[in-house]
Design goal:
Elements: H1 7-35, H2 40-48
């Protein structure tokens, strides 16, 4: 069986090779933002919101 290079195969391979590292980078950026010490106070306040009685 011989592999045929088509536009669909090329587009699929391009999407797989470009989007995977992009999404991994976005995921790492979100985790870094969430765990950054400067943001701790903001997240602590947000965590207490459901427990407050207004």
């Amino acid at each position: 069986m011989r592999a045929i290079l088509t536009v669909e195969n090329f587009a699929s391979n391009l999407v797989l090779t470009m989007w995977t590292p992009l999404f991994v980078g976005i995921f790492i950026a979100i985790i870094t933002y969430a765990l950054w010490p400067r943001n701790k106070a903001t997240f602590d306040v947000a965590a207490q919101m459901p427990l407050r009685e207004d």
